[in-house]
Amino acid sequence: MGSGQTMLTAAFFVLVTISVMSANRMILDNMTDVCQQEAIEQGSAFAKALVSEILTKRFDSKSHYQFYQGVGSFDLPSAMGPGTAIPVPDVVPYKSLDSTLFPYLYNDVDDYNGYERSADSQEILGFRLKVSVYYVNKATPDIKANTQTYYKRIDVTVTQPQFIKNGIKFSALACY
């Protein structure tokens, strides 16, 4: 074999190596995109389940009275957060991230203000859900109200350290 053939063979191997590396990079990028989409779907399912759980609770700790006394009788905005909790068994795949609250079930919507939960799917681990609950006005549901109203906005933010770093926010409105 002459030096020309050796150089052609070496060049061929370099081209094959570059082609294989490019193909591997494309496969890796494609798998990353697939995993990210799966994480978004799983995170969305966890957030929707948490929002649904919150919406099954009563509007306010004072809203169960038979004779409604008006908006002023609801919990103050500064009083949002856990109230009287009822112990219940742990529910998989969710875990409260605050050991002092684990495992508790909250009995009204604003008890979930500041609540955090972790969740794992079979494929992806490490989802984190954070809840914020606050009063809003009917005309401006995106703006926090400083007074009591008939509307509470529930924001659930989902993050996952590898695929959903910036978080995805899901919102719902609880009305009295």
Q: Order of strands across the widest beta sheet?
A: 2-4-5-6-7
| Sequence of secondary-structure elements | HEEEEEEE
What value does the average pLDDT take?
78
Q: What is the helix tally?
A: 1
Number of strands: 7
The major sheet is characterized as:
5 strands, antiparallel
Q: Given the C-alpha coordinates, what overall shape results?
A: rod-shaped
- Secondary-structure-based class equals alpha+beta
- Indicate the proportion of strand residues: 15-25%
End-to-end distance: 88 Å
Could you estimate the helical fraction of the residues in percent? 25-40%
Instruction: Give the domain tally.
Output: 1
Low-pLDDT runs of 5+ residues are 85-103
Radius of gyration: 26 Å
Describe, in plain words, how this protein is organized in 3D.
This protein has one domain (3-175). It has a five-stranded antiparallel beta sheet, with helices on one face. Strands 1-3 form a two-stranded antiparallel ribbon. It is rod-shaped and about 95 Å long. The chain has one helix at residues 3-55; strands at 86-87, 94-96, 104-105, 116-119, 127-136, 151-160, 164-175. With 176 residues, the protein is of the alpha+beta class.
